[in-house]
């Protein structure tokens, strides 16, 4: 069942007749799934793509070769390119990309610890790029990231 924030976001999108699509890495499809569980989600949800491994980001989302090597797969730069490249192929009012570190073994460092999440959202007339550091286990980090993305979208479409 979707969280209150995801439900509120979906209801606002339905009310405004806006569609949404997701390019997910760290959340591995859970954000798209959460949005799909809200009543009438079929009116807003276009779908999503899970690009967990770097090869998927490069092969399907056309992240230029060398970009991930330069910035890491979990970076603001790669998240932005995921959103921008995915939005070119998907007819959706809003496109959300999410990457990050939910467990050790990725590109974590002192300056980018486990719990670091990057969100990039493309709207018709603007883009929002955010970096967060969440606490908890992998599932808690992902749930916080999804709620945060839903909140960002809700604030933007409610203005």
Please, how many helices?
6
Give unreliable regions as ranges. none
Beta fraction = 15-25%
CATH superfamily: CinA-like
Characterize the largest beta sheet: strand count, sense, and whether it forms a barrel: 5 strands, mixed
Helicity level: 40-55%
Level-2 CATH architecture:
Alpha-Beta Complex
Helical/strand content category = alpha/beta
- Could you give the order of strands across the largest sheet? 2-1-3-4-5
What does the overall shape look like? globular
Layout of helices and strands:
Blueprint: H1 4-16, E1 20-24, H2 30-36, E2 45-50, H3 54-59, H4 67-71, H5 76-89, E3 94-100, E4 116-122, E5 127-133, H6 138-158
Parallel strand pairs: 1-2, 1-3
Antiparallel strand pairs: 3-4, 4-5
Structure, briefly:
The chain has helices at 4-16, 30-36, 54-59, 67-71, 76-89, 138-158; strands at 20-24, 45-50, 94-100, 116-122, 127-133.
Give your account of this protein's structure.
This protein has 159 residues and is an alpha/beta fold. It has a single domain, classed as Maf protein (Alpha-Beta Complex), CATH 3.90.950.20. 42% of the residues lie in helices and 20% in strands. The chain has six helices and five strands. Strands 2-1-3-4-5 form a five-stranded mixed β-sheet, sandwiched between helices. Helix 2 links the parallel strand 1 (20-24) and strand 2. Helix 1 (4-16) packs parallel to helix 6. It is globular and about 40 Å long. The two termini are 27 Å apart. The mean pLDDT is 96.
């Amino acid at each position: 069942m979707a969280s209150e924030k995801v439900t509120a976001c979906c209801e606002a999108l339905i009310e405004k007749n806006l569609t949404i699509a997701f390019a997910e890495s760290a959340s591995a499809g859970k954000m798209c799934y959460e949005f799909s569980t809200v009543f009438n989600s079929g009116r807003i949800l276009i779908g999503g793509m899970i690009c967990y491994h770097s090869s998927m980001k490069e092969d399907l989302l056309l992240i230029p070769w060398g970009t991930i090597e330069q910035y890491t797969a979990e970076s603001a730069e790669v998240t932005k390119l995921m959103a921008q490249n995915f939005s070119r192929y998907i007819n959706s009012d809003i496109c959300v990309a999410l990457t990050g570190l939910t467990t050790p073994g990725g590109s974590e460092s002192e300056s980018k610890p486990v719990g670091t999440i990057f969100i990039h959202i493309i709207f018709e007339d603007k883009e929002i790029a955010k970096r967060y550091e969440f606490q908890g286990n992998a599932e808690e980090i992902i749930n916080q990231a999804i709620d945060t993305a839903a909140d960002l979208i809700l604030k933007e479409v409610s203005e």
